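pasting for the record
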Amino acid sequence: MKVTLLLHDAYAIGGTIRTTLNLAAALADRHDVEIVSMLRHREVPRFAVDPRVRLIPLVDARVGSDDMAHPLFGEPAVDFPLAEKRHHHYSRLVDVRAAEFLRGSDADVLIGTRPGINVYLARFAPRRALRIAQEHLRHDAHSAELRTELAHHYRALDAVVTTTEADAAVYRTRMPLPGVRILAVPDIVPAPAGPPSDGSSKIIAAAGRLVRGKRFDLLIEAFSAVSVKHPDWRLRIHGDGAERTRLQHLIDGLGLSGRAELTGPRSPIEEEFAKASIVASASDAESFGMPLVEAMRCGVPVVSTDCPLGPAEIVHDGADGVLVPRGDGRALAGALLDLIEDPERRREMGAAALAGAYRYDPEPIAERYQLLFRDLRATRRGRVLRRAATAGRARGREQVRRLRRRLDARPEPGAGGVPTTGL
């Protein structure tokens, strides 16, 4: 069977790119697999691509490329949703190339990895293929305008796959899609190449984009309280983003220079996590929580805010990590101090984290997709009939509403000064 996965830019760095490459490699054990990248901005990908997986870029966005000179490259996208956050990266040329590729695709399964690409999938992919939309962002992270557009297009798909059960439940409730399977499959997080942490270092690590929603400011403030009692411990935050300057000012203002450090991006991040004894996350929201799983795969206990939606499905509170209320810096500092001051508990949690993280191995996740492909094939006719019946009922209700509006608009007998009696 041929499986095609569609990415925004396979040559960049990001969690969706990493997990898509992981899934492609796992599926390549059983299938012919290719990755189609809407854009290409550099010569080679930053992440390693399994040699069994073909990588096909559609539009070359490198400076000086022929595509950049194409007249459609300078025109804004029309088919890619305007409300999608990546719309400014897309052009009419990407629209055209994506439509051409999908219409001519001979894949048995097509998997999109972000909302705008999923809209391409719904509009242009051949109906004989299974069309699956992955959602790597939470339902509630999309604007109301985008959710409305997605609800319209996603009805044409076979399945919507979220990364958490909680988000799948939200989609089922707030975006009913007759005939479309909505389910959760977590991301693949392979075992790291190196040895796990021995829990002896005095390092707290964190990783992610330096943006407001990740609340690294709250983590730095919590670490400030930790540092008063344990000045020999260090905080290392790996990543880059718009908040870097503000966070550095916060570190300097709290007198944490030399103890708290913004290291910039690190890849593979597991090498850094294996040097730590605790990994922390203070996010306000996480659609999944890849750094938490990556830390656990390194045998490191995590301290995380219990934010929607991922952490509660990853961390078993008190067993392989600790969950604290969202936005509560005092609770975050307290949980860090508890683990710092109890090395034995820290090591036990690290061992439990390492044991439990095997549920994110490539093989079981690939098997879940294999079962999904079989189920979608077996139920296709029934789902098509259900979708058609639902659409028919919707058309019937709309016709009734139109008839009622016309009747309500008709003048009452005698209206307009026309006499009805008295002759």
